[in-house]
């Protein structure tokens, strides 16, 4: 997919010729651009599911509504009375009663996705063949060119070597296409007049696309896009034809309603944005193919090839529609010469926009499909969080980790990218096709999710960036081993999946409690959540990973120019915060009912949470944004240490000491995880502070600040009464 001039070779570039080292363990599966392709395909397929849902409502909506109303009436008769227990029993009855119609709704909706996918896969044979016909007549290249392609393919790990063919005399641009299993590299005839090194550079560029899986991804995305347009028209055509013959209403009277007008506008917006995003991702893959083709090779032939090509000034719309970046941009990326490319604001915006659509739509489909089963509710939301988080962990996490400079954590956080990530997610929720006809807050808490999702996603992005800086400090460069990339991908998956899950749960509680009781929603989404155990384990895994990175990097010693409060000062900060929190908890005992051990235990857990929060605040106060990485392991350590001390105090009185130990560990960590997500974005926006060797004494203030913050926080919690406590209405304190 390289532009080739038909004239002779251009003048060579005087720039350096040595290719930079590019990791051999740069797997295509962890390509950020590839993740954005998959996100785009998922959004298009889910749009087909919405078309299927409309068809269900038009053809089977009456029976669905009748069955639902009947189940609600039966639930009221079967489970009379008022109260939390009765409401739960009625809801369970309705779930079981409506299982059949809800699953039918999910299956009919997914049939729209299956149709789009089927047509998109079928287009893998149609669209490439159409392009090759336009580039023909095609003539198979001599055996010499096949041999050169085979050698390059062997170096890149390609098992099935594509055929090399010549295009027509009018073809000026090389490209790779073909049906699955038979890929062809179509070269302009002018390539034969180029020097062998430059011709090999073109071959290697096209083979780099094959090695990265671009041929399938690009054509599948185009095929799904072309397949979606007629599928979106099916509901409108069906309703227009049905009303024309049943009610004698014209198409304008039927389709002129606000719903169909909004549906048409959103569908047009989706197709337009999808086309532009597809072109943008394709341009990113062109850069990646250039850099991948340089593995083990000098970059002089590719540089000289690009230097001789014109780079005309284009309007923004022409740039947005272009399939290839300009030669000047490609040349700049080649001379920058490292994978991955820097993460642009547009890349981040695309990731956030598409991820929000996938998360919300998959959750709604899963809730409908799992109705009346053990997978409804939290498991359905977890499924959507895992599906979206896995793509975000590559689209954002791996991209940022690869692009983090080896400056020992002294450089600024990607603040603009974090803000773009936060701003794009609510746009995706509001502008998605599935929001057609929704004017307010639905049962899923759509509007609260618009508030919680951007904050949580941006917080996970900030924590991911902080971990990336710790990783850089560990070895001075991005991870290069295959196991290193597995670890990086895993920790980012935990971060983003956990953040998405917390955002979903917080939105539900915020919808129930209302904005005036946001503090209650904060507590219910933290230590009192049904997902508290998994949240705590996730934070523990991230903290352990961060601690290993810090120890591996040798941060236990104060190195020249290293950030303040590293090493032993972090240890003293953890101890001071935990000690002050425990002392404040024992020094003041709030007024409790006699034998109210549940409230006392909850106060202990809040005190341990305050220890972790104080550690975070102290490190941020002295180090600014650069303290976020150390806080990822220091804050959980402080909370765990404080909880362990308070648990040990009551050890002789525990009937089940192991269960109590689990409670004193998971409750503070789950609440701390939510607070870390909430504060990560503001922390990343702080300036990065470093202290020179002559002012390292200031780092000694970190334990003092942590102790003060912890004591003040614990006393504030104890004086708050029962506002942060949770006692089930039907239970009594032990």
TrEMBL record:
Q: Where is the composition biased (Pro residues)?
A: 9-19
Task: Tell me the segments the record calls region Disordered.
Answer: 1-26
Q: Name one GO molecular function term.
A: peptidase activity
Q: A single GO BP annotation from the record?
A: proteolysis
**Domain Peptidase M56 residue range list:** 93-221
Q: Gene3D superfamilies from the entry?
A: Metalloproteases ('zincins'), catalytic domain
Keywords from UniProt, A to Z, are:
Hydrolase, Membrane, Protease, Transmembrane, Transmembrane helix
Segments crossing the lipid bilayer = 37-55, 105-127, 224-243, 339-362, 382-401, 413-433, 453-472, 484-503, 536-557, 569-588, 600-622, 631-648, 668-686, 698-718
Which protein are we looking at? Answer: Protease HtpX
User: Which gene name belongs to this protein?
Assistant: htpX_3
